[in-house]
Amino acid sequence: MAHSIVCDELSFSWPDGTVVLARLDLALDAGRTGLIGRNGTGKSTLLRLVAGELTPTSGSVSVAGDVGRLPQTLTLQTHRTVADLVGVAGVRMAIAAVERGEVTGEALAMIGDDWDIDERAVAELHRLGFTDPDILDRQVATLSGGEAVLAGLAALLIRPPAVTLLDEPTNNLDRFARGLLYDAVGRWPGVLVVVSHDRELLERVDRIVELREGSVRTYGGGFSAYIEQVEAEQQAAQRAVRAAEGDLRREQRQLIETRTKLDRRARTGRKAEAEKRVPKIVAGNRKRAAQVSAGKLRTAQSESVDAARAALADAEEAVRDDHRIRVDLPGTAVPAGRTVLQLRTPATRFTVRGPERVALLGRNGSGKTTLLRAIVGFEAGPAGHAAAGAEIEQRLDRIAYLPQRLDTLDDSATVLDNVRSVNPGSTPQQVRAQLARFLIGKDRVDLPASVLSGGERFRVSLARLLLADPPPQLLLLDEPTNNLDLDSVDALADALAGYRGALVVAGHDLPFLHSVGITTWWEFDADGTLQVIDPPWSD
User: Fold this and answer.
1) N or C of the chain: less Cβ packing under 10 Å?
2) Which residue(s) pair with 454 in the sheet?
3) Mean pLDDT of the chain
4) E strands of 54-154, at which residues?
5) Over 308-328, what HEC string results?
6) What letter would DSSP give residue 81?
7) pLDDT 10s digits, 465-497
8) Hey, where are the domains in the chain?
């Protein structure tokens, strides 16, 4: 059976020469494939190459059938309508033109058999949780991040392509919406390739393909099977390293012993010659023969040491040594009794004191982002009236807000300039060193923010907030695990667990929320009322 997607020595570099993929070979069969890898390894770029949106620098990509892609950037397309996201705007315009009497061959070709496209699109959107009858005419700017993702997913369900590419589809989705996505993936027609850090979603694929250090490796089964295989491989790799270290130590000891023996023989020969116990000509012959023999022995022993050292290097290369985000912000500490945030709703008052940690839950569109923006002061009036009539009564001045759309960066400016704009007192070298702690390499610091991957964009946005002068004492995060690879989610949890300020996190990733030490849980219920709830447990 022919493969559905074939990459043959595929290479891609950006115009500035940055290499993303180099001579990549990959063949994917029909079924569901989970594509994983650290941020910046080229996952999204690979999907864009498969979709034909980018042209390989060298090599080739071949795909069996048409391709549909759900990109990470849907939430940034605020100027578009839902009809645009769903992919029916052109057909709707053509139908409207025909109904006005403007019947043209171009319009009829555009419509084809899609005279009922409005009904089909609205039905699919309603199945995904939208209830607004005029949903197709709404602007993306009025949608929550999760709603924008669901609208993009609807486009692929209305007209399923032969090959579907989903790039972080669970970003911003609430638990209900994730359940809808999981069900859709379970019955997806044709070929599906999904880039995700959602472990529940990755359990539903047929295979895991890991993109790592420029090469790919395929593992059969879902995410649990992948973890088991990697752990077994790493245990074997660690044993191989220990064995190689032992071999190297043994070869080095033998080299020392050989050199000691040869030095002893040389001293004995020189002493015998000095005492004239053997004829001079015989001594000379013995000396030359000994030198030749010693040279061969030293060479052989040195080669054995080099071979052992090379074997150790090979063994160490098989051991994963992934770097993690490191954050240390002593200036963020907040005394336990200080009131950080106080807001009032018609029913009750909500107060955050000291380094308290609050999780903000609720369905997509319930008002989580609106409340966070009100706390920052982005919404109506100096006090800010939030969702469901919540009024901000008191808040700290040193607030940092990370929106789910990640639109706080100046895309035309470099990474370095974006961070220095909030901390002008730091030298470029100091900022470079600080960015390295957020895993932003020196080859990325001078690039414009527009070329960053989703995960890199998140880390730069986070660095820009946390490295500001003065540093924030109240940190508001809106869906912070979006776009992060699995290792970075764990690293972010570690970093936030050591954060000394107050924290309010809006999200749906319950394992992550539990891991950062949430102490208080707020939730918008079905009526849009904010309430304190007991800690929910992850599935």
Assistant:
1) N
2) none
3) 83
4) 58-63, 67-70
5) HHHHHHHHHHCCCCCCCCCCC
6) B
7) 888 888 888 999 998 887 677 777 877 887 787
8) 5-229, 234-317, 330-409+467-533
Which of 95 and 310 is assigned the larger pLDDT? 95
Alpha helices in 139-222 (DSSP H): 145-158, 175-186, 199-202
Q: Please, what CATH class does the domain formed by 5-229 belong to?
A: alpha beta
> Which one, of 260, 301, 266, lies nearest residue 283 by Cα?
266
Give me the mean pLDDT over the 405-418 stretch: 89
Structure tokens at 90: 């052109």
DSSP 139: B
Q: What are the angstrom distances between the C-alpha of 92 and each of 98, 106, 121, 134?
A: 10, 13, 11, 13
What does the alpha-carbon distance between residue 28 and residue 216 come to, in Å, rounded to a whole number?
Answer: 11
Q: How many CB atoms lie within 10 A of CB 408?
A: 17
197 DSSP assignment: -
The CA distance from 529 to 527, in Å, is: 6
Question: Tokens 């005279």 — which residue?
Answer: 115
What's residue 290's pLDDT?
Answer: 59
DSSP E strand boundaries for 385-471: 391-395, 399-402
Give the integer Cα–Cα distance in Å for 307 and 317: 15
Same fold, 5-229 and 330-409+467-533: yes
The 10 Å CB-count burial string (b at 16+, else e) for 384-399 is: bebbbebbbeebbebb
pLDDT tens per residue, range 280-291? 665 555 556 556
Number of C-beta neighbours around residue 190 at 10 A: 17
**pLDDT (0 to 100) of residue 54:** 95
User: Rounded to an integer, what is the distance from CA 44 to the centroid of its chain?
Assistant: 10
What radius of gyration do the chain's Cα atoms show? Answer: 31
Superfamily of domain 330-409+467-533: P-loop containing nucleotide triphosphate hydrolases (3.40.50.300)
Whether the full predicted model's pTM is greater than 0.85, yes or no, is no
Provide the pairing of β-strand 349-353 with 357-361.
Answer: unpaired
Render pLDDT for 140-190 as a digit per residue (tens, 0 to 9). Answer: 888 877 788 888 888 888 888 999 999 988 877 888 888 888 888 888 878
Asked if 77 contacts 147 with a C-beta cutoff of 8 angstroms, the reply is no
412: helix, strand or coil: coil
Specify the 3-state DSSP secondary structure of 118: helix
- CA-based max dimension of the chain: 123
Residue 491: the pLDDT is 73
Q: How many CB atoms lie within 10 A of CB 68?
A: 19
Return all residues near 101 (Cβ < 8 A) that are at least 6 apart: none
What CA–CA distance (Å, rounded) separates 220 from 276? Answer: 76
User: Once rounded to an integer, what is the mean pLDDT over residues 100-113?
Assistant: 88
% of the chain exceeding 70 in pLDDT: 87
Residue 381: pLDDT over 60: no
Structure tokens of 204?
């539903």
Cα 132 versus chain centre, distance: 33
